[in-house]
Fold this sequence. Notes:
By secondary structure, the protein is of the alpha/beta class. It contains eleven helices and eight strands.
Amino acid sequence: MKKQELVQRIRSKRSFLCVGLDPDVSRIPERFSGDVLAFNRWIIDQTRDLCVAYKPNTAFYEALGLEGTRILKQTIAYIGNNHLIIADAKRGDIGNTSRYYARFAFDTLGADAITVAPYMGADSVQPFLEEAGKWTILLALTSNSGSSDFQHALQGDTGQPLYERVMRTAMEWGSTDNLMFVCGATRAERFGDLRRIAPDHFFLVPGIGAQGGDLAAVCTFGLNDECGLLVNSSRGILYAEDPRRAALDLQRQMDEALKNYAPKVFE
Length: 267
């Protein structure tokens, strides 16, 4: 999915919601009898008109073995072509290995995007960026508590935090048409700086809902003239008493935020 297609979907749905499809078998409602695919299809049916993207975390499927891969492929096929599909795999290895990771995500699974760890540098990321029409979503400032162990470390030669160096360096490898950044909602106070570093790139924002991220703060500082945000909710929707109502509540908040902070999206 090209950038302008994504922006158009955001505009038409008045939403930048990404639904995380991370099915924990122990938490799936009893009426599904542990049927992960049936549960996923139900969640998709409840939310497809309210979101612009889905993000299955591959670990939840890999843990189910070969059957899990089948479920993941069938889930992606069920979503179809009208949503950005993000394989949340956080890959990152030497170039030759990354090339096969890219092939699996994009060709075998049929995903539009994949999350990638930048620690091994340019040659580990480039194979993902070479895939025409696909997105690489690079970890920058993540939502987990341990992110401060490395991501905030100041660099001696520039004095900038490591996440800023990652972003500025990676922007030389890709463009706003194939490179996004993962920026966690639990670090909302940093979004002004993040947007200053990458004014035109899309950010994938986890951490809303169960992790306590502040949607209003993220929108205040993170929205740009093309929206520029994909805000993800996983557990907050999947295991809500009424998943559709939970998704609708977020969509309505996003609609209001777009009108207040990014009115040019609708021009």
